[in-house]
């Protein structure tokens, strides 16, 4: 599984790749949180279950990322590990992380939300790619 960011004019692109669509969605989530905090310092101490539904894969990616942001904000947490289980019309996922601690975590840029800009969920060369731009 791979996760990385890509340049965008005003915001930041996030991208996840994997052998499965689930891995690609998990990679996109990891890329998004890597913008917010240095993930090397985030331990997967607590698990949070997240479910969302959408009419297509692209919208499901945006809803997944925005649900993660909402849970992180609500709980005062940062996440570093993600598991995704796709189902008909949606997904059930698990995010693992810990409460944000300014003394231990190196903050990055605040992500406000996932957008529809450059939104793409495709299979290329044997790998799934899930990408979008996040508003910072």
Description of the structure:
This protein has 136 residues and is an alpha+beta fold. The protein has a single domain (2-135), classed as Archease, Possible Chaperone, Chain: A, domain 1 (3-Layer(bab) Sandwich), CATH 3.55.10. It is 26% helix and 43% strand. Strands 1, 2, 6, 7 and 8 form a five-stranded antiparallel β-sheet that branches. A three-stranded antiparallel β-sheet has the order 3-5-4. Helix 1 packs across helix 2 (57-75). The mean pLDDT is 95.
Q: How many extended strands?
A: 8
Query: Which overall shape is indicated by the principal axes computed on the Cα atoms?
Result: globular
Helical percentage: 25-40%
Averaged pLDDT: 95
Would you identify the CATH architecture?
A: 3-Layer(bab) Sandwich
Spell the H/E element sequence: EEHEHEEEEE
- The number of helical elements comes to 2
Kindly name the structural category. Answer: alpha+beta
Main sheet, how many strands, which sense, barrel?
5 strands, antiparallel
Going by CATH, the homologous superfamily would be Archease domain
Rg over alpha carbons: 14 Å
Q: What are the low-pLDDT stretches, counting only 5+ consecutive residues below 50?
A: none
User: Roughly what fraction of the amino acids lie in strands?
Assistant: 35-45%
The N- to C-terminal Cα distance equals 25 Å
CATH topology: Archease, Possible Chaperone, Chain: A, domain 1
Number of domains: 1
Report the top-level CATH class.
Answer: Alpha Beta
């Amino acid at each position: 599984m791979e996760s990385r960011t890509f340049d965008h004019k005003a915001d930041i692109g996030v991208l996840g790749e994997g052998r499965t669509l689930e891995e690609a969605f998990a990679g996109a989530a990891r890329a998004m949180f890597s913008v917010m905090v240095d993930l090397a310092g985030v331990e997967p101490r607590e698990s949070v279950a997240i479910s969302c539904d959408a009419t297509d894969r692209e919208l499901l990616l945006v809803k997944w990322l925005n649900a993660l942001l909402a849970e992180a904000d609500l709980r005062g947490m940062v996440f570093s590990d993600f598991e995704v289980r796709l189902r008909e019309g949606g997904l059930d996922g698990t995010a693992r992380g810990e409460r944000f601690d300014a003394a231990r975590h190196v903050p990055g840029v605040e992500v406000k939300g996932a957008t529809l800009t450059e939104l793409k969920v495709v299979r290329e060369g044997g790998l799934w790619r899930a990408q979008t731009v996040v508003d910072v």
